[in-house]
Specification:
- This protein is mainly alpha-helical.
- It has three helices and two strands; from the N terminus they run αααββ.
Length: 95
């Protein structure tokens, strides 16, 4: 579906969008490409394909819940530029 810059100007007016006149042609081209893609997707035969109600209904692979070392403070603080007594030192932001 090819949109013209006049189509885009009319849509922008209805949507109360302020679009510069020099941006209308590139926007018409981009939206036309998007609508062509939608037309291609609608042309696909989906007979026999069961619709998915929600992506969260898919089964997920979960890892086993295992205990891990709880004190990795030294390892996690190695890359810190400044630290003192197990705490990160940050610059003062409030006087």
């Amino acid at each position: 579906m090819a949109l013209t810059s006049e189509d885009i100007a009319g849509i922008a007016h209805l949507a109360r969008l302020g679009i510069e006149p020099d941006a209308l042609d590139p926007l018409a081209k981009d939206l036309s490409s998007l609508l062509d893609l939608v037309e291609q997707l609608q042309a696909i035969d989906t007979t026999g394909v069961e619709p998915m109600a929600h992506p969260a209904s898919a089964s997920l692979w979960l890892r086993e819940d295992e205990a891990s070392p709880s004190s990795e403070r030294e390892t996690l603080q190695e890359p810190a530029p400044e630290k003192l007594d197990g705490y990160f030192l940050v610059p003062r932001v409030i006087e």
